[in-house]
Amino acid sequence: MPNNIEGRGLTDRELLQLCLELEKGRCHSINNVILETKHQGLREIYEGAYANASSNQYELFSIMDDKGWYKTEIASTGQINKVQELMQNNLHPDNQFK
Question: What are the tens digits of pLDDT across the range 29-51?
């Protein structure tokens, strides 16, 4: 794939990043439709489309991660505990007032 230095096109990294962003957007859009669709048959169609888009997104992410093009931070035990506590409080807000 040509590089972008002399305006000859997108690099492999740029192309994968664009594809990843498109799939992430597709996941968000399909998810919103699922949340607002009452017809069960239609929901199932969109759920299949979501599964496909999610799978594509993860595959693109994995390729970029393997090449070192998508850096993710490893969460510490403290960060994980903080999120778990936050989620438990948000899932059971009545427990905060006991």
Answer: 999 999 999 999 999 999 999 99
If one counts the domains in the chain, the total is 1
Q: Is residue 80 part of a domain?
A: no
Asked if residues 15 and 23 have their Cβ atoms less than 8 Å apart, the reply is: no
CB 82 within 8 Å of CB 89: no
What are the start-end ranges of the H helices in 1-98?
12-35, 40-66, 77-91
Prediction pTM value:
0.71
Supply the range of the domain harboring residue 16: 12-70
The answer as to whether 42 is a domain residue is yes
